[in-house]
Amino acid sequence: MSHEQLNAWRERFRAAVQAHPRHHLHSTLRRDFYLDLDDDLFTRRFQGWLAVLAAQRVLPILMEFTPYEALPFREINACIRLLRRDDELQQDEVADIVDHGYHASGTFAGSDLVTDVQYFHVAAVERAAYKALLEVAGWRNPFDRAVPPGTPDDQWPDDEHWAMLGVGDTAGCAAVAASCSATSFTCDPQRLLAFWTWWLDTAWPQAEQYAGMGVMMYGLSDTDPNEPD
């Protein structure tokens, strides 16, 4: 996908965030974006870096509340190693991290194992890191099978709904983590606006830059057999 096409989507997103009364970037629009993405190497890497940057953005929440929780950092590290084509990273290792992430995102997600207190925003951070790894490893459309077929767009829920589910993208989870509280997934509109503004103005161009640099640095082609599908 060309820079011009990506930029057109970015401006659509910007207008949608500004127009929404609570500054959500609705999941149906992001669903259409993922469906529109080309399956070329640059675009796959762009999606991967965009997910990684979103997940990294909210890691300080985890550091403040559950600093001993290592799994999200392992997931992000695996993302970066995949994007950098680390030959020492084995697929079995990635599968093991994904499996740990899947099992860690259940009932006790976001819990402080010392005090037994569950933090909603920490749970969203953990889920964002897990989804980032899925996207980098080849999850092209995070909203596939998100709702029953034929569900009208106006009946799709906002991102608070997806925060702890196995569907939905990294960016949506990170947006919830950045704007919700320790006791509720309900998002503060101004903090949500701040996240999406950062995502569009900072993360988006960085992801384009990193994707382009990666293609040049590693000399990968669209038919590289080691590139995640």
Major sheet, described briefly? Answer: none
Shape field: globular
If helices are DSSP runs of H or I spanning 4 or more residues, what is the number of helices? 10
Q: What is the residue-averaged pLDDT?
A: 85
Low-confidence stretches: 219-229
Helix content: 55-70%
Order of helices and strands: HHHHHHHHHH
Output the structural class: mainly alpha
The end-to-end distance, rounded to whole angstroms, is 17 Å
* Record field, number of beta strands: 0
Rg result: 17 Å
Strand content is: under 5%
Fill in the keyword field for this structure.
229 residues; mainly alpha; globular
Protein architecture, described:
The protein has ten helices and no strands. The protein has 229 residues and is mostly helical. The longest helix is centred in the C-terminal third of the chain and has 30 residues. The radius of gyration is 17 Å and the shape is globular. It starts with a helix and ends in an 11-residue tail after the last helix.
Which helices and strands appear, and what pairs or packs with what?
Elements: H1 3-19, H2 27-36, H3 41-57, H4 59-65, H5 71-83, H6 91-104, H7 120-136, H8 159-162, H9 170-179, H10 189-218
Helix pairs in contact: 1-10, 3-5, 3-7, 3-9, 3-10, 4-7, 5-6, 5-7, 6-7, 7-9, 9-10
